[in-house]
Amino acid sequence: MNITRTWFSAIAAGALLALASLAPVHAADDVTYRGLGGQQGIKNIVATLIPLIKADPRIKESFVDTDMKNLAMRLEEQFCALTGGPCVYEGEDMNDVHRGLKVTNAQFNALAEDLQIAMERNGVPSHVQNKLVAKLAPMQRAIVTK
Ligand code: HEM
């Protein structure tokens, strides 16, 4: 009886420890994804962003030959994956896809600004907006070639 109880306690303690070690990691990991409103929130943000890009005189010229439906799908995947959501980015490498486009720092900032407007219009809190922009900032080196 005592041995059974000891075993039971050991298993229960083990299970609790395993849960405790998993839960905080998961919660901390997808906090930005959830802040964006999850899958549907990201879909809405990108749907707002695409027309802003197409109308922005600072960058619209670059996208005249672009399949914007594909771009939207890839941006959704990328934002989801970057913020800890359950997605895998399956698009092209950032260096490869922007090579030859001669993107400037000003243009990079213009797109980041449009993204912030899109997030604002979808009610994303500014601290969450900043988190996504911070995740994209390291890509500047791959995207800007001019
Ligand atoms: C935060 C900045 C940016 C991010 C995260 C980003 C991300 C992406 C992604 C995910 C794709 C799709 C890749 C694929 O189709 O597999 C893409 C394509 C593209 N990006 Fe960017 N981009 C950024 C900035 C810019 C800027 C500033 C420009 C130009 C002004 C630009 C021009 C393009 C064009 C023209 C394509 C389509 C290329 C093609 O279809 O051949 N991007 N970008």
TrEMBL record:
Pfam families in the record? Bac_globin
Tell me the residue numbers annotated for binding heme: 98
Query: What Gene3D superfamilies does this protein map onto?
Result: Globins
Keywords for the protein's UniProt record, in alphabetical order: Heme, Iron, Metal-binding, Signal, Transport
> What GO MF terms are annotated?
heme binding; metal ion binding; oxygen binding
Cited InterPro entries: Globin-like_sf, Globin/Proto, Hemoglobin_trunc
| Coiled-coil zones | none
Iron among keywords:
yes
User: Could you say which residues form the signal peptide?
Assistant: 1-27
Keyword Signal on entry: yes
Q: What top-level branch of life does the organism fall under? A: Bacteria
- What protein am I looking at? Group 1 truncated hemoglobin
Native organism is Massilia eurypsychrophila
